[in-house]
């Protein structure tokens, strides 16, 4: 913590608390086991809503300060009513947010100052897959691109922070390496 | 379309428009190329916001009816200020929403009536990975589970609709099979 003792709230990150948390988890790895959750309710057509509130972590059930509800839908061009972004756009958001949250922590831990961070995430998708019109086209994005603009300390330090964020991002890991998804159905 | 002519708005889905869209794309596959986008702006610490508005598809740039902005943050237990869900929770939401939007379309196309659809999506994550405390623990979710409750027509028809939604979900495909992610950085 010596590198940040002169500025414990660098980039808005409480680095003392961050290092203390890492030390606590190192001492008791059971604290690191988290379970996140979203509950979704169909509204009509392609319109549905997820609520995010409770989660498990650090050996206890917890709640976010407020429950958040997010509407998803398809746009009119895809026969929806555009009551919210498409599910795939939320996926792009989750990747952007994970990389940006991570790099803010990493920059603070390294004593690197940020003044501005912006990211644009784009994903290319050919709907011949999900429309069942081609067996050769995959259902999901064929490619995702992330473009960062960072301002703050020296460019090479900023680039190194982004690289470490990529190496430690939960969402980047899941998107690039895949994850097992089990589905169970209560139908009646 | 004969199976749905008696009920063109089954489950809130305009099945005539859905089939017409599929026919139009079959005739001109270029219409199927979409590009979705989220832009993210760092606020402070692990707090950042994505905006979703414009996208490309059907050979043109388009906008959603409204621009949507979503805050992401880490909870207090993870040294954030809990200004919104974590990025990983948005990922779970995107999976739930994609499966539910898809199954509503598929049910309508098959003439299957839905009265209720609910889904809970949970993901297990061991933070020893992203905290850099273990090289053997991955950064992202080790496992995701989706639990559906469906009510409507016969259970076996409902279960078949969920199975087809899984087989045609863009987000399920990306999460289970992975996707290339390219990152570029403008640092100055």
UniProtKB/TrEMBL annotation, chains A, B:
Alphabetical list of Gene3D superfamilies matching this protein: 3.30.300.20
Domain of life: Bacteria
PANTHER family the record matches: HYDROPEROXIDE REDUCTASE (PTHR35368:SF1)
Pfam families, A to Z: OsmC
Species of the source: Nocardioides bizhenqiangii
Record-annotated membrane-spanning stretches: none
Keywords for the protein's UniProt record, in alphabetical order: Oxidoreductase, Peroxidase
Protein's name according to its UniProt entry: OsmC family protein
EC number: 1.11.1.-
Keyword Oxidoreductase among UniProt keywords: yes
GO molecular function: peroxidase activity
